[in-house]
Write a structure and sequence with these properties.
Layout lengths: L6 E3 L8 H7 L4 E6 L7 H14 L4 E3 L1 E3 L2 E2 L11 H10 L1 H20 L5 E2 L23 H17 L5 E5 L15 E2 L7 H9 L4 E4 L3 E2 L11 H10 L5 E2 L15 H11 L4 E3 L3 H10 L6 H8 L17 H17 L1
Parallel strand pairs: 1-2, 1-12, 2-3, 3-6, 7-9, 8-10, 9-11
Antiparallel strand pairs: 4-5
Helix pairs in contact: 3-4, 4-5, 4-11, 5-6
């Protein structure tokens, strides 16, 4: 059985170092997240992912949403910001949903063809026109549009054999502060957040990432450290998939204490997989000092994110009808904006 630990960590560069290999073998590690610094070409990325998968069959993930959040660019299709699909939905909902599905296929097929297993997408936050860090990453302000477009994008991801991860539960679109550098506080009452939570009620998601946001009327802890929010997600919304913490090295996580306290808080709240990014010293500290009890259920949940069928052949993609449709949809979006 492929036993996966609770930490998803990053690696230093475009090749694995001896320290990377040592850490990826550690039983607390259960996944790898890649960044722009890990990419120089499709061939290099394919070799890096292959080496990781030979070392251990760990899920390899990336933030590859489109727009300004696309870690790999040269050699990949430039994906549009999701707000463009929302603008299309206002005029032609069916055409926009068809485009979203086709774009989802392009997103997933290009990554999977090189060995990447998961993109942290789609963003389900509503565009309240308040959050700069979310901004055009959101599909729309109307939850009906978000559900329709995100659901279509997810169908495209799955057609290419990739799972999905909805973020940032229960909604990051209202707060103005950026949780990368601050601790955002949303003062709304729970009843005022019904629209933000609607996509999580209606979409079939494989994974969810809670926000590093404090919803002060519900709990004094950020959602990813809150047993109340995690229980609401599990019990009230019936979610059975993987719950990722957002990056524990972000400022929004600092409310929980040092890196070990942050891991304990997220794990204790019910997160299955904890991200620790751009903080190699913190990873070393966790691997040395954190000793959670093994949890086979959480390990099995995470293992379900590994693709169950072969990746698309990169050389064959150009002739694939769904891939051609996705490239055409992107061209239409660009033409609409012109």
């Amino acid at each position: 059985m492929n036993t996966l630990g609770p930490l998803m960590i990053d690696v230093a560069g475009t090749l694995l170092s001896d320290l990377d290999r040592e850490r990826l073998r550690h039983p607390l590690v259960g996944g790898v997240i890649l960044f722009s610094r890990n990419y120089e070409s499709p061939a290099q990325l394919e070799a890096l992912c292959a080496e990781i998968h030979v070392l251990r069959r760990l899920p390899i993930a990336v933030d590859h949403e489109g727009g300004r959040v696309q870690r790999f660019r040269e050699g990949f299709t430039r994906l549009p910001a999701m707000r463009r699909l929302g603008a299309w939905w206002d005029d032609e909902p069916q055409a926009a949903c068809a485009a979203a599905q086709a774009i989802g296929f392009v997103l997933a097929a290009e990554l999977r063809a090189l060995g990447v297993d998961l993109s942290f997408a789609p963003v389900l936050d509503l565009d309240w026109e308040r959050s700069g860090v979310i901004g055009d990453r959101a599909f729309h302000r109307d939850p009906r549009a978000v559900i329709a477009l995100a659901g279509s994008l997810i169908a495209g991801l799955r057609a290419a054999g990739m799972a999905c991860c909805g973020k940032h539960f229960p909604g990051h679109g209202w707060v103005e502060a950026d949780s990368h550098v601050a601790i955002p506080v949303d003062e709304r009452r729970l009843g005022d957040m019904a629209a933000d939570m609607q996509p999580y009620r209606e979409l079939q998601l494989d994974a969810v990432m809670p926000a590093h946001v404090i919803y002060a009327q519900v709990d004094s802890r950020p959602a990813g450290f809150s047993p109340l929010w995690i229980e609401k997600l599990r019990q009230e919304l019936g979610f059975e998939g993987v719950i990722f913490s957002d990056d524990l090295s972000m400022a929004g996580a600092s409310v929980a204490g040092d890196i070990v306290a942050r891991a304990e808080a997220a794990w204790g709240a019910g997160c299955d997989m904890l991200l620790v990014c751009n903080a190699p010293d913190a990873v070393g500290e966790l691997l040395e000092r954190w000793h959670p009890a093994p949890d086979p259920l959480r390990s099995r949940r995470t293992a379900c994110l590994l693709p169950s069928r072969p990746a698309p052949d990169r050389q064959e993609l150009e002739r694939h009808a769904a891939y051609q449709a996705g490239r055409a949809a992107i061209a239409q979006l660009i033409a609409r904006q012109a």
